[in-house]
Predict the structure.
Amino acid sequence: MTDERRDMLAANLTSVQKRIADEAAAAGRDPGELTLIVVTKTFPASDVETLASLGVRHFGENRHPEAGDKASALAGLDLVWHFIGHVQSNKAAAIASYADVVHSVDSVRLAHRLGTSAIAHDRVVTCLLQVSLDPPGQGQGRSGVLPDELPELADAVADTDGLRLGGLMGIAPLGGSARPAFELLARCWHELRAQHPDADILSAGMSGDFPEAIRAGATHLRIGSAVVGERPTLG
Ligand SMILES: *Cc1c(COP(=O)(O)O)cnc(C)c1O
């Protein structure tokens, strides 16, 4: 880790934390209600280590085995690992062995696989249900369930040993406006909490749209590039 990289991470982190605090104040919210998850996908474990030394506890990753490799390399640091990417069914068991929170649960089948593995590893995995926020007829192939499908999936997760139903996650549609999408997500969350009051996590907002997410009521922000810099484009 060069001093230069450390200084850049520290400066970016401070600036993002200040923007979060300002946006929370503008929205009349207590910044203490907001958890910053720094998304470190494609960046090395040394960046995670540096950010941990700067006080970050929550990290987001979207691919297996990269996520698990970092979690095991840094197992001594007592970090909270958030798996935010699509979970392929053949990787669910492995992911449940190290992820503390899975943000992308979108089927009963996946929930059962995660639960079985969580029990085998003597852990509890917090599950967020990913809600599709794409306009009807668009976004086919992206992950997430429709709002109508949430009650059934929520009950299934809540009834699965080894899992805790944590709440909801959403990604604003590409090229669309984040605000109505996050407002829809927040309405789904309020309905969910009427049945499952302990589902207290609303995961929304990335580098480009976290102010809208804070205004809509997000509790967990998934912020990558604003802290760690631009990722090299894949493929
Ligand atoms: C990569 C990613 C993020 C972070 O995106 P940035 O624009 O770099 O902040 C957030 N959520 C998910 C699901 C991601 O895959």
User: Anything to note?
Assistant: The first strand starts at residue 35 and ends at 39. Residues 3-26 form the longest helix (24 residues). Residues 148 and 188 are 9 Å apart (CA to CA).
